[in-house]
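ok new one. same drill as before - structure tokens go in, u give me an amino acid for every spot. 257 of them this time. try not to just spam alanines like last time pls lmao
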């Protein structure tokens, strides 16, 4: 159960999300395009698109993008940040997404697949994909046991929000729900290290825009957490630094039958 069942609302942190969560390095996007995915001639659906980070950053590769997210505030920010780009956005949960059969060559889900009801979603995605179409699950996370700043930041989140279950990440493959064994084949997966550069301000913003902080803390808790986090960064971190991360992907291919 996510955060022990404690409620969270991404809409509460949409402005921070828009400003501080567009942090994937170019290598992250290049590895997607190098796989021949999300490129010119393809139609792509991005589930849980948030502020449209994936569609916006891969727009130059030429695919036709559609993004959906359950939060109207997230979609509002996505539209603002995508001004001038031909990207269609809809405020709708992934499980309620409904496009005609065979609408997409690729369906992506970045940083969000564990929130979905795959029993509902998997057959819908199979129907909306073209024959041989792909699902690409994507993930990136900091590594607290390898990075002292990430570790200290996590401990501070847990001080104010002990129910948060997003702490303690280690390198591991993306778990693909068993519902995808019917109609899909796992064709590739992998993990690789990344170093992501931050300033004190941008790391504080990145942490504030996570589920355990801005999306779930009360206003008073958030204010206290932020004061303590910035004090910790000022005392222990240089003005600019890298945080050790890893990225993971799982590619599924639609099969007949």
């Amino acid at each position: 159960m996510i955060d022990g069942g404690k409620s969270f609302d991404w809409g509460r942190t949409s402005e921070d999300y828009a400003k501080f969560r567009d942090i994937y390095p170019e290598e992250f996007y290049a590895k997607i395009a190098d796989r021949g995915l999300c490129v010119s001639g393809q139609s792509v659906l991005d589930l849980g698109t948030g502020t449209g980070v994936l569609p916006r950053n891969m727009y130059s590769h030429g695919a036709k993008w559609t993004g959906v997210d359950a939060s109207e505030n997230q979609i509002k920010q996505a539209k603002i940040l995508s001004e001038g780009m031909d990207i269609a956005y809809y405020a709708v949960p992934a499980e309620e997404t409904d496009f005609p059969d065979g609408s997409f060559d690729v369906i992506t889900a970045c940083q969000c697949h564990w929130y979905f009801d795959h029993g509902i979603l998997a057959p819908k995605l199979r129907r909306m994909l073209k024959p041989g179409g792909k699902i690409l699950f994507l993930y990136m996370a900091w590594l607290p046991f390898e990075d002292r700043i990430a570790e200290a930041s996590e401990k501070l989140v847990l001080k104010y929000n002990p129910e948060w279950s997003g702490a303690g990440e280690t390198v591991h493959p993306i778990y693909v729900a068993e519902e995808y064994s019917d109609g899909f084949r796992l064709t590739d997966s992998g993990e690789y290290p990344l170093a992501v550069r931050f300033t004190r301000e941008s790391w504080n913003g990145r942490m504030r825009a996570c589920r355990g902080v801005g999306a779930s803390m009360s206003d008073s808790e958030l204010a206290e957490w932020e004061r303590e986090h910035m004090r910790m960064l000022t005392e222990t971190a240089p003005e600019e630094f890298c945080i050790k991360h890893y990225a993971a992907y799982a590619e599924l291919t639609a099969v007949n039958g």
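Residues 219-236 form the longest helix (18 residues). and btw The CA atoms of residues 143 and 209 lie 17 Å apart.
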